C-alpha cells in the first residue's frame, strides 16, 4: 500500500510531463451508475408456505465541466432504496412495512489531472458530501401468549463527509473516457440523527407498543486510506474543444 501511494505521488507531483493537456477548459461531461438486486424466495413445508421478495437499487449521477486545462468541478447525486415483502407474515402484530432503507445524497467535487501519456492521465478528486438515510430494522419476538410480533427500530441519519479519490483516466474514444479508481481516502466523517424504537407489548398485542426515542452524534477525525478498492466507470463528454485530442 505504501509503495503504490509513493508511486502515485511521484507520478502526479514530481515527474515532469511533456504531454499536452488531455482535458481542456470548456469541456463538459456526464456519467452515471445503476445497480439492481431482485430475488424471490419461496419455501414449501409440510404445513406452511413461506414466500419473500427482496429488492434494492443504487443510483449515482455525476455532471461537471473543466474550468481550466486539467481541472474540473462538478456535482454527484445519489439515491438508494431497499424493500422486503414477506407474504407469510401479514397476520402478525406490527407486521413490517416493505421499506427497509431509503437514502439520498449529494456531493461537490474538484478534479486535478496530470497527463502521463497522450490519452492517459492520473487524477485526484477531493469532495465534500451530505447524505440522508432512513433505516427500518425489524426483529421478530414471541409474546407471552406464544404469538409472534415485531419490534421496530427506525433510524434517521444525516452524514457530512470529506473524501479523496485517486485513479487513472484513459480516453478510449473521442467522447468516452474510462476511469479507474484505485485509492480512497476519508479524512473526516460526522453523522447525527435520531432513533425511534417500538417494542410490542409482552402480555397482549391489544395494549399497544412501548416506544422509546433518542438522538446521537458520531464523528471520525482519524484519516483512513483504502488502497484495495478498485472502481471502473465511463464518462461521456458531450461538449469538446476542437483543439482537444
Q: Write out the strand line-up for the largest beta sheet, numbering strands in chain order.
A: 1-2-3-4-5-6-7-10
Q: Mean pLDDT, nearest integer?
A: 80
Rough shape?
elongated
What's the helix count?
1
Straight-line distance between termini: 33 Å
- How many domains? The number is 1
**In terms of per-residue confidence, which ranges show pLDDT below 50 for 5 or more consecutive residues?**
1-18, 241-245
Helix residue percentage: under 10%
Radius of gyration: 24 Å
CATH class: Mainly Beta
Report the major sheet.
8 strands, antiparallel, barrel
Please identify, by name, the CATH architecture: Beta Barrel
Number of strands: 10
- The CATH topology corresponds to Porin
Structural class from helices and strands? mainly beta
H-E string? HEEEEEEEEEE
Into which percentage range does the β-strand content fall?
Answer: over 45%
Question: How would you portray this structure in words?
Answer:
The protein is mostly beta strands. It has one domain: Porin. The chain contains one helix and ten strands, in the order αββββββββββ. Strands 1-2-3-4-5-6-7-10 form an eight-stranded antiparallel β-barrel. The N terminus and C terminus are likely disordered.
Amino acid at each position: 500500500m505504501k509503495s503504490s501511494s509513493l508511486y502515485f505521488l511521484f507520478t502526479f507531483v514530481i515527474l515532469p510531463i511533456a504531454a499536452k493537456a488531455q482535458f481542456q477548459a470548456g469541456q463538459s461531461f456526464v456519467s452515471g451508475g445503476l445497480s439492481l438486486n431482485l430475488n424471490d424466495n419461496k419455501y414449501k413445508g409440510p404445513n406452511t408456505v413461506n414466500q419473500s421478495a427482496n429488492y434494492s437499487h443504487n443510483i449515482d449521477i455525476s455532471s461537471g465541466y473543466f474550468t481550466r486545462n486539467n481541472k474540473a468541478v462538478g456535482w454527484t447525486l445519489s439515491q438508494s432504496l431497499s424493500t422486503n415483502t414477506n407474504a407469510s407474515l401479514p397476520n402478525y402484530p406490527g407486521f413490517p412495512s416493505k421499506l427497509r432503507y431509503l437514502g439520498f445524497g449529494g456531493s461537490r467535487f474538484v478534479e486535478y489531472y496530470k497527463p502521463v501519456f497522450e490519452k492517459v492521465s492520473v487524477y485526484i478528486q477531493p469532495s465534500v458530501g451530505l447524505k440522508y438515510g432512513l433505516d427500518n430494522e425489524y426483529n421478530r419476538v414471541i409474546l407471552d401468549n406464544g404469538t409472534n410480533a415485531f419490534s421496530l427500530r427506525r433510524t434517521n441519519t444525516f452524514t457530512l463527509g470529506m473524501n479523496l479519490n485517486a485513479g487513472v483516466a484513459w480516453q478510449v474514444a473521442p467522447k468516452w473516457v474510462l476511469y479507474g479508481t484505485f485509492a480512497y481516502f476519508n479524512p473526516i466523517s460526522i453523522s447525527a440523527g435520531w432513533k425511534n424504537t417500538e417494542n410490542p407489548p409482552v402480555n397482549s398485542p391489544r395494549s399497544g407498543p412501548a416506544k422509546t426515542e433518542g438522538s446521537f452524534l458520531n464523528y471520525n477525525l482519524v484519516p483512513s486510506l483504502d488502497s484495495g478498492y478498485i472502481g471502473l466507470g465511463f464518462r461521456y463528454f458531450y461538449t469538446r474543444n476542437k483543439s482537444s485530442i
